[in-house]
């Protein structure tokens, strides 16, 4: 690539003293700097920040996809209506329940597996790849497979679980078991990913800490609790944070398991805040109301991550 | 020493036991896709396995078109991402232009906002532009990704500054440095970008299901979802769809998995 005039100039100038070179480098590289960020600035402006502002405006309007010209401002009307909608609270309670159960569960399993995998010599890569595969597999494919595994009569998982006293039902279609089905699905999907994250964290722990621990007479179990777990605290923070975001965003799985029924099937048992948002926006065409719901999700995620941050800080 | 060996064996027992949870679902999908209608739900020998489901699904559904759509969309977005994210990341890491802080904030800020906030206006924009059911509509809004810019920037920050300074003394321009020095050095980081972009797009569902309503414009994920709803009574057919949707991603993953693990290690996590 030919250097252009502007950068050529900077080269000539840069042959002078170090101080002036530094300051000139700053101003003359402005052009290349802008040139390189221009594509993302343009794309971001059109496809991210413009819609972001637009959505905020919609959220204060009574507006529908079907007749956008009839929009009128109603202030906080949409937000008030959402807060008064029983379905919203049901969906929110499902999302929170999923988060509270699935996120710690997947973090604990991921940590235990990572610690053990980190210590073995053989087949390490094979195990890691196998556990990781669900995370890169399409959510629709995974949900489809799990629906057959948890089917009445024929499902392998359903049959196994009847030995533990669970009924022989199609879990995904049962009002009582559809949400646990989603939890199992979620943990299964993400556990391998977080295991790899923990593996990365384990690699950063210096070995001499363990040696010192051994000298002090700490056994394996004590080493795990007194050394590994505290040292991995920043990683755990990331795992929990990302877990909360992923689970609060759950949508594809309930969409797929509803089959041709309405979102949140059976009977709203698998509604999440995102399926609530989506059906308001795209089934009922309420773009204003949907936008308000989107901003509530946004606020919730920020609130949850701040809460978690504070919680973790206090412990340290 | 005895104890050590015992814990070692216990570790393997745990890892193998845990593996069952992963082998069974994947195994079930592959196995069922090879069964004839009469054999569904039974254990049969490999001699009875058949590929007729694969033939049937290609003949009776639009899966070939969905494959084509998925490939075009995935590669379109991938190429765009590599260009847009990498140039932006280099600029943000290494060029000291005025307003850099603001641009960085705008890029990083995107990682905080869930897609629900943008999808309604973007749907309206796509409708207004008559891009519903089109490649443009499925590709252009997704050519950039804050997370991947962040990932590339983290990488560029680790490259020693002396390298660039030496190249500058040798008369290379900033653009020359980017192409001749930085890009060849960042093969690993670009590999990470490729796998994240590829898997993200190939598996994406909510956007293509929203921006397309004509089955000839479906991508594989949306196609499989309709296939599953239509042929739910025939697990051999739906599992064939599952295998066909999953196979490409597994292949790409095995090719690039080293980079993915590296990417997770350097940036912490995908947002």
TrEMBL record, chain A:
Gene3D superfamilies the UniProt entry points to: MetI-like (1.10.3720.10)
InterPro entries noted in UniProt: ABC_transporter_permease (IPR051393), MetI-like (IPR000515), MetI-like_sf (IPR035906)
The family database entries (Pfam families) matched by this protein are listed as: BPD_transp_1 (PF00528)
Q: Which family does it belong to?
A: Belongs to the binding-protein-dependent transport system permease family.
User: Which organism is the protein's source?
Assistant: Paenibacillus etheri
Where is the chain membrane-spanning?
Answer: 31-50, 96-117, 129-151, 177-199, 231-251, 288-307
- Please name the GO terms of the biological process aspect recorded for this protein, alphabetically: transmembrane transport
Check the record and name the PROSITE patterns matching this protein.
ABC_TM1
Q: Where in the cell is it found?
A: Cell membrane
Ranges of residues in domain ABC transmembrane type-1: 92-308
Kindly provide the name given to this protein in its UniProt entry.
Answer: ABC transmembrane type-1 domain-containing protein
Membrane topology type: Multi-pass membrane protein
**SUPFAM superfamilies xref list:** MetI-like (SSF161098)
For this record, the Gene Ontology CC terms, alphabetical, are: plasma membrane
Classify the source by domain of life.
Bacteria
What lineage is on file?
A: Bacteria, Bacillati, Bacillota, Bacilli, Bacillales
What keywords does the record list, in alphabetical order? Cell membrane, Membrane, Transmembrane, Transmembrane helix, Transport
Automatic annotation (TrEMBL), chain B:
User: Which residue spans traverse the membrane?
Assistant: 12-31, 71-90, 102-126, 138-156, 237-256
Annotated ranges, domain ABC transmembrane type-1: 67-255
Q: What is its main location?
A: membrane
Please provide, in alphabetical order, the Gene Ontology terms of the cellular component aspect for this entry.
plasma membrane
Matching entries from Pfam families are given as: BPD_transp_1
Homology family: Belongs to the binding-protein-dependent transport system permease family.
Q: This protein is called what?
A: ABC transporter permease
Give the originating organism: Paenibacillus etheri
Q: What is the lineage of its organism?
A: Bacteria, Bacillati, Bacillota, Bacilli, Bacillales
């Amino acid at each position: 690539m030919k250097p252009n005039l502007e950068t050529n100039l900077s080269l000539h100038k840069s042959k002078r003293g170090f101080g002036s070179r530094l300051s000139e480098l700053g101003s003359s590289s402005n052009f290349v700097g802008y040139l390189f960020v221009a594509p993302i600035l343009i794309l971001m402006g059109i496809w991210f920040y413009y819609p972001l502002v637009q959505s905020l405006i919609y959220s204060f309007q009574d507006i529908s996809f079907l007749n956008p010209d009839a929009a009128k401002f109603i202030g906080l009307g949409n937000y008030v209506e959402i807060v008064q909608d029983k379905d919203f609270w049901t969906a929110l309670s499902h999302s929170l329940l999923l988060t509270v159960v699935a996120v710690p569960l997947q973090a604990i399993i991921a940590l235990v597996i990572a610690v053990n995998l980190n210590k073995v010599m053989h087949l390490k890569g094979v195990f890691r790849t196998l556990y990781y595969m669900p995370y890169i597999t399409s959510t629709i494919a995974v949900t489809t497979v799990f629906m057959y595994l948890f089917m009445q009569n024929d499902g392998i998982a359903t049959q196994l679980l009847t030995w533990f006293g669970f009924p022989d039902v199609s879990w995904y279609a049962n009002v009582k078991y559809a949400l646990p089905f989603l939890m199992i699905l979620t943990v299964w999907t993400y556990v391998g990913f977080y295991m790899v994250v923990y593996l990365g964290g384990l690699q950063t722990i210096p070995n001499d800490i363990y040696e010192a621990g051994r000298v002090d007479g700490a056994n394996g179990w004590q080493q795990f609790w007194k050394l590994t777990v505290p040292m991995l605290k920043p990683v755990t923070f990331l795992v929990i944070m990302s877990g909360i975001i992923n689970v609060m965003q759950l949508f594809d799985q309930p969409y797929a398991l509803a089959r041709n029924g309405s979102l949140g099937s059976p009977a709203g048992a698998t509604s999440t805040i995102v399926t609530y948002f989506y059906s308001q926006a795209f089934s009922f065409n309420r773009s204003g109301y949907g936008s308000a719901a989107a901003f509530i999700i946004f606020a919730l995620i920020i609130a949850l991550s701040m809460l978690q941050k504070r919680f973790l800080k206090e412990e340290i | 020493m005895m104890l050590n060996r015992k814990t070692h064996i216990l570790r393997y027992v745990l890892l193998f036991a845990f593996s069952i949870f992963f082998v069974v679902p994947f195994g079930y999908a592959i196995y069922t896709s090879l069964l004839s209608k009469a054999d569904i739900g039974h254990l049969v020998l490999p001699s009875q396995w058949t590929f007729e489901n694969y033939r049937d699904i290609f003949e009776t559904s639009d899966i070939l078109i969905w494959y084509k759509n998925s490939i075009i969309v995935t590669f379109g977005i991938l190429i765009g991402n590599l260009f847009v994210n990498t140039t932006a990341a280099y600029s943000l890491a290494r060029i000291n232009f005025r307003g850099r802080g603001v641009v960085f904030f705008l890029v990083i800020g995107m990682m905080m906002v869930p897609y629900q906030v943008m999808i309604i206006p973007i749907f309206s924009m796509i409708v207004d532009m008559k891009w519903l059911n089109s490649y443009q509509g499925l590709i252009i809004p997704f050519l950039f990704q804050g997370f991947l810019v962040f990932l590339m920037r983290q990488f560029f920050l680790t490259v020693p500054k002396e390298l660039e300074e030496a190249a500058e003394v040798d008369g290379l321009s900033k653009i020359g440095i980017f192409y001749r020095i930085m890009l060849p050095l960042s093969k690993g980081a670009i590999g990470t970008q490729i796998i994240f972009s590829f898997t993200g797009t190939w598996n994406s569902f909510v956007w293509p299901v929203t921006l397309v309503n004509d089955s000839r414009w479906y991508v594989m994920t949306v196609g499989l979802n309709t296939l599953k709803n239509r042929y739910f009574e025939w697990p051999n057919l739906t599992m064939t769809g599952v295998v066909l949707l999953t196979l490409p991603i597994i292949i790409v993953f095995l090719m690039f998995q080293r980079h993915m693990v590296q990417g997770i290690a350097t940036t912490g996590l995908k947002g």
